[in-house]
Specification:
8-stranded parallel beta sheet, 10 strands, about 15% strand, binds NADP nicotinamide-adenine-dinucleotide phosphate
Amino acid sequence: MRYRALGRTGWKVSEISFGAWAIGGSWGQVSDEESMAALHQAIDCGVNFIDTADVYGGGRSERLIARLKKERKEEIIVATKAGRRLPRQTVEGYSRQNLSAWIDDSLRNLSTERLDLVQLHGPPTELYSRPEVFGMLDDLVTAGKIRYYGVSVEKIEEALKAIEFPNVQTVQIIFNCFRQRPAEVFFARAKEKCVGILARVPLASGLLTGKLKPDSRFAADDHRNFNRQGKAFDVGETFSGVDYEVGLAAVEEIRQLLPAGFSMSQCALRWILMFDAVTCAIPGGKRAEQVADNCGTSELPELTPEAMAAVQRIYDEKIRPLVQHRW
Ligand SMILES: NC(=O)c1ccc[n+]([C@@H]2O[C@H](COP(=O)([O-])OP(=O)(O)OC[C@H]3O[C@@H](n4cnc5c(N)ncnc54)[C@H](OP(=O)(O)O)[C@@H]3O)[C@@H](O)[C@H]2O)c1
């Protein structure tokens, strides 16, 4: 496993890290035993950074990570999130009282005295014009409840505003072969400011693994079933907001480019790692085999300029018209 500097934090984190949404909920049933095996596999592969949130399974994901930390002696940095427990996203909801209560719950779930990194979890765009919210986060740092903070954004414009606040250490954003705009308009600015970038939904919710078919079915409690039209949360979080059939057709074209020795997931993750502004990709993993496959990416060679150009062409022709103007 190779490691990259996480912005100005002084931490070096695994370039393939672990996204812990699916082990909490919203992705069909995953047993705690399977989840623990997946988490242990990640640590065995050299992962030292895990992304979670207070709302993933109502704290279940955070509690599993606390268990992992008890069972392992390696240093494990945990990034959690706060804000999605609001019944409706409003700037007023990000009050001092609410923030403190959410942080206290995450401290309890993660069995720790101080949270490593707290990300605002997709707050409304207007929040990025409210310095007082970032002031409250500064106060939580001063109080010793959190070490660092960052944001998890939907839109690039939010990311650009967020990094104007001097203590924002990280931006989590959707970035993958089907979401290329961050590289065009955000990465250079983030590098200038030395802000860490966490590339989320790196496998486009499984589309880029190459295993999905036109007739693939998803459980009722899997967002790939219930959020396809954005009924529960931003539609961009499910298959990156790409129409399922169009996505499958684009994946078949990417399959033709697959270098020898790469799985489809590894090709998608290696594409992300080609961008040095990215600190890490955080693929979700439900099973140990998936985690091992994903982590193996770090050992693989770079993609060729020809392969990069081909992915760009597939994006430009098939995907860009669907996503570029939206996020
Ligand atoms: N608003 C936010 O802040 C936000 C939103 C979304 C995600 N995130 C974070 O980003 C992380 C990653 O995004 P994501 O989990 O939504 O999507 P993702 O990483 O693009 O896809 C993950 C899913 O793909 C399948 N998979 C993973 N590795 C595989 C492999 N090697 N082979 C075959 N299938 C594989 C698994 O599901 P199946 O086995 O069921 O197919 C897994 O749950 C999340 O876990 C979370 O930490 C944050």
